[in-house]
Write a structure and sequence with these properties.
single chain, alpha/beta, Rossmann fold, 2 domains, seven-stranded mixed β-sheet, four-stranded antiparallel β-sheet, 13 strands
Length: about 300
Amino acid sequence: MLQAIKKFMTPYMQGEMYQDLDKEQKAIVNEYNDKIHNGAYKTEEVACLCGKKENTKLTDVDRYGFWHPVVICEACGFMYATPRPVWEVLEEFYKSGSYRKVYGGVEFEESKYEEHVNNSRMILVELTDLLVVRKLQSVFDFGCAGGWNLLVFKELGMKVSGCDFDPTLIELGRKRGLDLQIGSFELLEGKRFDLIILNHVVEHFNDFWKDMAIIREAMSPNGLLYIALPNMSMFGCNRLQNAHNYYFKRPHLDFFMRHIGFKRLSTASMFEFQDFFAIYDLSDDILMKHLEHEKEIFKGFLRRINILK
């Protein structure tokens, strides 16, 4: 399967095409693929977030060799995974610890905790003025991992909390005095927060429209939403991961967010354009024609690097 990725290597790709895997990681990949192909793991076909079903396939596997078909929508140019594992399969993948074992290594998070905290200070820098003006008091980090994004807000005296599936990472944060829980959307029911952080989480959502509507319902009237994502304007097959259902460029994120009642207040690239963030509150209008133009530019790029004919 790794040969299927190697054929896409070009000077335009950023970074390594895939990580070298150890014996345990390779076994996880092989077991996952076997369960997909023998039907033990159920899969589903989905349409683009714009509602259209016409698409062109870009690849069948991710950078680790996991089965991961990714397509580009012929209507709007959005990239997404289809067919894909049903949510129960991905939920098991996260909770089992396989996700961390393959993506980062077992000991990675403890040894890099302070580095994560330092990176999180960038979130605070971008939000500081808005926090002061709006007098925001509470922060919830959805998909918080070890809680490193929350420590900088706790230092300001804000009430912080978060959730994640991985019990090992949750324990890392709890040891540092953070209010973290194992779970997902059910933990937001009936609660309101001034700031919700979705740091490399939205690409994992199973149902963007439903999941984002729950997030919106959990925001206070004066609240803010911070989203950070891989920047697919820096496209390369090395950026594909089997746990990612959606691959966003900024025009697509703005367009889809508008339809659930958000407008973007600010945005910028991070880490040499590999990622980007956006801060949202209420809705404005973005026309479909913006996406049509973006689609043609991106498809021209894919043709130049021989991924599309």
